[in-house]
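PROTOCOL LOG
Step 1. Enter all chains and additional molecules of the complex.
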Amino acid sequence: EAAVTQSPRNKVAVTGGKVTLSCNQTNNHNNMYWYRQDTGHGLRLIHYSYGAGSTEKGDIPDGYKASRPSQENFSLILELATPSQTSVYFCASGGDWGEYEQYFGPGTRLTVL
Amino acid sequence: GDSVTQTEGPVTLSEGTSLTVNCSYETKQYPTLFWYVQYPGEGPQLLFKVPKANEKGSNRGFEATYNKEATSFHLQKASVQESDSAVYYCALSDPGYNQGKLIFGQGTKLSIKP
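Step 2. Run joint prediction.
Step 3. Record the structure below.
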């Protein structure tokens, strides 16, 4: 079954440390997305990608980098983690031309101490 | 820019009562409209989508009509169940302007009392 998976599911990091969140999709979609979800803000787009080698800034990219080394994999990188980046992060694939819907992974809960 | 506004939560209902979650949108293009549902501890999942104005989408007893004139896409269910407790997101995809991106509302948390 086509799916979006994320790892790790839970992560505790220290302020100033580097954090990498990973996402893998077997949907064969060109587009992939990273969102964060916070109470009162809903889902906010951080970075997205149209295919291997491409990354684009979303609505709140500051403090985050992204990497798309292959069709299947999309990573979100926090070079210097801060407590304000404590959140739940979701990866999604889809949004390809003519379809538009996105399929989400189960989320990663990140706590930065 | 494009935006989506929906009923502010949380909303608490008793089992068997009817549900309406309002959703209004702003865009200069011709969007596809979506309702997503998110259960505790899971990612959002597509409930249904409607790509054309004046058409209705439905799934699991939920339905919504794409009203282009009123720029609305209200979610309705005649009789809610405890298992409907979740967060509901209205969203739009604007193919002409934000290709591939979804614009989400802020979400409406629904709790159903048995």
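Step 4. Note key features.
Chain A touches chain B at residues 4, 31, 33, 40-43, 45, 48, 50, 58, 90, 92, 95-97, 100-107 (CB under 8 Å).
The mean pLDDT of chain A is 94.
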